[in-house]
Amino acid sequence: TIRTLESHIPEIVALHPARIDLAYGVNDINIGFWSTAEEYTTEYVAILDQIEEQLPGIEIYVNSTLEVQDWALYKGDMWKYIPDWNVEIRRMCEENGFTFVDNAPTTAAHQELYDADGIHMQRAFYPYWAANMVLATYEHAAEDAYSE
Prior knowledge:
Strand content: 5-15%
Helix content: 40-55%
Shape: globular
Radius of gyration: 16 Å
Order of helices and strands: HHEHHEHEHH
Largest sheet: 3 strands, parallel
Number of strands: 3
Distance between the termini: 36 Å
């Protein structure tokens, strides 16, 4: 969960990265620590602010939560709200200068790459996911260049 992210801040800072890609959500949404997406993003942004404080200028990329397949929704009561939580995560990113990485089109295009549980992705999905993150980086750089 994002709560474990906070415990890794010293390790992240020690690496002095120029950027960080984060992917949280499926466990977070269903675990019950947060009743609403707003509560979740309030805590999330506070953690990301700590990272920015200690690493000025870092670029933060926040992946949308990967959706589960419809037939697997019975395994987690809150998973049906993933699209709604992603709207709030996108809003958090836009309001705080983080880059939102929308993975919904990528998972939709590769439904066959879900594991048998309908929740997790097979290893073969990872190159598509990585390409989506690279594309977000490219688009972010292009926006920055255009705005200068």
